[in-house]
Design goal:
alpha+beta; GIY-YIG endonuclease; 16 strands; about 15% strand; elongated; disordered N terminus; exonuclease activity; exonuclease; DNA binding; DNA polymerase-3 subunit epsilon
Length: about 575
C-alpha cells in the first residue's frame, strides 16, 4: 500500500452544498473487482486521489485480496492475477485507511453507483459505518454537459481521449482514478456556462432534470436562507403558486432538481418568470401568511386552502319545530350550529348522524302551531315525531330533539354518542354490518366536527394571548394571538429578556375585533395552525386576557373513540378499493 497525504484542509469543507466547486475537496475513487454482485467482498484493487482546486492533495492505492478466485476474463481485462493478490491485505484491513482518507470529502467516481455499492457492502459486512458522503458521478455529469456531437458515448476511455487526460485509463484502479480526476476537471470547466458554480448545483445538475428546470434555475438566485413565504409569479405578475419553508432559498432550489417530479409543478415552472420572497419572523408566521396569500389570490397551482369562504355550517333553524340546515354563513341570531365544514358532503354526513340519534324533523316545510301539515313517510316509519301533525308539543320537541343538539355542539355530546353507539350495536347484532358501518361513519363525522369546533372556540373567545417558543439558535419565537388570529410575531435575541420584544410586537400588532362563532376573525385553518403551535410541549403561555379552557364534559373526551372510528372507516375503504 502506498499513501501520500499533504496539504489537507479542514475536515468537512466538502459537505457544504453551497461551497464553490474550486473549494471542494474531492476524493476520486476507482475499484477493480472480480465482477460479481456487491456482497461485501470481490474488490481486488482500490485507487483514490484527493484533489481540491486542481491540486492533488493525496493518493491511496492498494491491491486487495478478495479471498476468492479471479475469473480468467477479469485477469485478461485488468492484468491482475491471483499471484499478485495473494500477499495483498484483505478488504477488512484496507477499509479503515480508506475511510480515513475519504473523511468528509465528496466522493467522485465514474458510474458511481457501482463503486459505492461495493464499498457500502464491504462496510456493512465488516462492521464499519458508511459515512454517506455526497457523491458526484462523472458519467452522469458528462451526459448532461457533453452532446452526442462531441462524444459518441460516456465511457471513461472516450472522455479521457476527449479531454486529453495526462493518464490514460487501463482498467487499473489508480490509473483510472487519475484519468477520472482530469475528466472531472474538464467537466467542471464546462459547468459555468450552465450556471452551475457550487457543489449542490453540480450534484443536482448531474441528475435527470427537465430542460425547463435547467433553464429556469436562475429564479432561485438571491433568495434568503430564512423562514418565510415564496411566491412564483407569471409574466403579468399573477401569483402561480405560494409555498412556505423554514429556508426559502433551499426550498425554492428544490423545484429545479430531479426530486421534483410533479407534472403540475413542471407546468407551473414553465409559466413562472420570477420568485418573490416574504421573510417572516418564524415558521408559524410563515404558515399563516401562506394561508392568507392563498386565500386572497387563489393561485392556480395550489390545491389546498384556496377557498376558505366556501366553508359550510350545520345550524338549527328558528321556529317552534326547528330542523337542521346546511348554510354558508351564521349570524349573531344563530345560537345552535356546528362547523365549519370543508364540504357539503361532510356537513350532510354529520347531519345524518344527528338524525340517527335525535328525533329531529327532516322535512323542509315551515311548520305552524295553528295549521296541520300532512305527515311524510318518516313519521309512518316511526323515525319522526310528526310535529307537522302536532303529535308532539313544541316543549317536548325541544327537550327531545333540539336541546340535545345544542348541548352536543356547545358542551356535552354524550346523549348523541350513546344513541349512535346503541344503533351500531343493534345493527351489528342483527348482522347488518354494512348499515352499522354507515352509522359508524356518521358518528365519526359528528365527533370530528364537535371536537374541532369546541377546540377552536376555546381559543377564539380569548381577546389576546401571548406565547413563546424556543428559537433554534437561542432566544424566543413570540406570537400575539387575538381572537384566534395571529396579530403579531417576532423573535427576541438570545441572552435578552423577551418582554421588550413582546411590547414592541403588541404596539405594532393588528387590531382584531371580536365576532360571532368559533372562528370570528380568521379562517379555521389559520386558527388550527396556531393551536398546533400553542399545544407543543416547548411552547410557553406568557399572558392571556382570559382563561383558555374547554368544557369539562365536552367532546374532547371522545378523541379516543373518534380515532378508533376513523381507523375503522379507513380500514373499510382500503378493503373496498380494487
Amino acid at each position: 500500500m502506498q499513501e501520500t497525504l499533504a496539504g489537507l484542509g479542514p475536515a468537512g469543507e466538502g459537505t457544504d452544498p453551497d461551497l464553490p466547486l474550486h473549494a471542494v475537496t474531492f476524493v476520486v475513487v476507482d475499484l477493480e473487482t472480480t465482477g460479481g454482485a456487491p456482497d461485501g467482498g470481490g474488490i481486488t484493487e482500490i485507487g483514490a486521489v484527493k484533489v481540491r482546486g486542481g491540486e492533488e492533495l493525496g493518493v491511496l492505492g492498494t491491491l486487495v485480496n478478495p479471498g476468492q478466485p479471479i475469473p480468467a476474463f477479469i485477469t485478461v481485462l485488468t492484468g491482475i492475477t491471483e499471484a499478485m493478490l495473494l500477499p495483498a491485505p484483505p478488504i477488512e484491513a484496507v477499509l479503515p485507511s480508506f475511510l480515513e482518507f475519504l473523511a468528509d470529502a465528496v466522493l467522485v467516481a465514474h458510474n458511481a453507483p457501482y463503486d459505492v455499492g461495493f464499498l457500502k457492502a464491504a462496510c456493512a459486512k465488516h462492521g464499519h459505518r458508511w459515512p454517506n458522503p455526497r457523491v458526484l458521478d462523472t458519467a452522469a455529469l458528462a451526459r448532461r454537459v457533453l452532446t452526442r456531437d462531441e462524444v459518441p458515448n460516456r465511457k471513461l476511455g472516450t472522455l479521457a481521449a476527449y479531454f486529453r487526460t495526462a493518464t490514460q485509463p487501463n482498467h487499473r484502479a489508480l490509473d483510472d482514478a487519475r484519468a477520472t480526476v482530469d475528466v472531472l476537471h474538464g467537466l467542471i470547466g464546462r459547468l459555468g456556462g450552465h450556471r452551475v458554480h457550487t457543489l449542490g448545483e453540480a450534484i443536482e445538475f448531474a441528475r435527470a432534470v427537465t430542460p425547463t428546470q435547467r433553464r429556469k434555475r436562475y429564479l432561485a438566485d438571491g433568495l434568503p436562507k430564512a423562514p418565510g413565504v415564496y411566491i412564483f409569479r407569471a409574466a403579468d405578475d399573477r401569483p402561480l403558486y405560494v409555498g412556505t419553508s423554514g429556508d426559502i432559498a433551499t426550498r425554492v432550489r428544490s423545484y429545479f432538481t430531479a426530486a421534483e417530479k410533479r407534472a403540475r409543478m413542471s407546468e407551473m415552472l414553465a409559466a413562472a418568470e420570477r420568485v418573490e420572497a416574504v421573510e417572516c419572523a418564524h415558521p408559524l408566521e410563515a404558515e399563516v401568511r401562506e394561508l392568507r396569500l392563498i386565500a386572497a389570490h387563489a393561485p392556480p397551482y395550489n390545491r389546498r386552502s384556496k377557498f376558505p369562504e366556501r366553508m359550510l355550517w350545520l345550524k338549527l333553524t328558528d321556529g317552534p319545530y326547528p330542523r337542521l340546515s346546511v348554510v354558508r354563513e351564521i349570524g349573531p341570531a344563530d345560537v345552535a350550529y356546528l362547523g365549519p365544514f370543508g364540504s357539503r358532503r361532510a356537513a350532510e354526513l354529520a347531519a345524518a348522524g344527528f338524525h340517527d340519534a335525535l328525533p329531529l324533523r327532516q322535512c323542509t316545510h315551515r311548520l305552524s302551531l295553528r295549521t296541520v301539515t300532512p305527515a311524510c313517510a318518516l313519521a309512518e316509519l316511526g323515525r319522526c315525531p310528526a310535529p307537522c301533525e302536532h303529535r308532539i308539543t313544541p316543549e317536548e320537541y325541544d327537550h327531545r330533539a333540539a336541546a340535545p343538539f345544542r348541548s352536543a355542539t356547545a358542551a356535552d355530546p354524550q346523549p348523541v354518542v350513546d344513541a349512535l353507539l346503541a344503533r351500531i350495536e343493534a345493527l351489528a347484532g342483527a348482522q347488518r354490518y354494512e348499515e352499522a358501518a354507515v352509522v359508524r361513519a356518521r358518528l365519526a363525522a359528528v365527533l370530528r366536527a364537535t371536537v374541532r369546533m369546541q377546540r377552536l372556540a376555546g381559543l377564539t373567545r380569548i381577546a389576546e394571548l401571548a406565547a413563546a417558543h424556543p428559537a433554534p439558535g437561542g432566544g424566543w419565537q413570540l406570537a400575539l394571538v387575538r381572537h384566534g388570529r395571529l396579530a403579531g410575531a417576532g423573535v427576541s435575541p438570545p441572552g435578552v429578556h423577551p418582554r421588550p420584544t413582546l411590547q414592541v410586537i403588541r404596539a405594532t400588532a393588528e387590531t382584531v375585533s371580536p365576532g360571532h362563532g368559533p372562528v370570528p376573525a380568521a379562517t379555521a385553518e389559520e386558527t388550527e395552525r396556531i393551536l398546533s403551535w400553542l399545544e407543543r410541549p416547548e411552547t410557553r403561555l406568557v399572558e392571556s386576557s382570559a382563561g383558555w379552557s374547554s368544557p369539562v364534559a365536552g367532546a374532547a373526551r371522545f378523541r379516543a373513540l373518534l380515532t378508533k372510528a376513523d381507523q375503522a372507516v379507513s380500514a373499510q375503504l382500503s378493503t373496498e378499493r380494487p
